[in-house]
Amino acid sequence: MADNPFGDLGALGGLMKGFSGLMPQDDPQVKLMNAQNQLNDLKEQEATTYTEIGKQAFAQNPDAFPAQADKLRLIQANIAEAQAALDQQNQANKAAETAAKDATAALTCPSCGNVNPEGVKFCQECGAKLGSGKLVCPGCGEENPPGTRFCGGCGQKLGD
Question: pTM for this one?
Fold first, then answer.
């Protein structure tokens, strides 16, 4: 790696490859960078091919690789644990998001849609009762979704 002026850039290598197209192609450093990118691409293709060969060989004869089979089972168990932890965290995030939406909905006026501060029982914008989540028609008692302007049961104007 000492003769590679860009070092082992990893993901940055792709960025450098993109920039090389903007640089003068006769520049010795650009030529060196292009050659290094080509070499890295070929090494990546080689590693991918070895991976494919290894998977096929293992699938055909897993008993030929007992140490690697044990290691693979351990890795797969760790993957399952990590996936379970990820699923659990996703569920916790969804629950927290739902709770936050519910908290905001409880503070949102069903009549005018104003978001009120916590602790108030009536909308500070229009005076409607808060907390029910649904807008109840004063004429027929039908529950209507928040923000509804006319009752779905009798057509009476709601709010304001």
Answer: 0.48
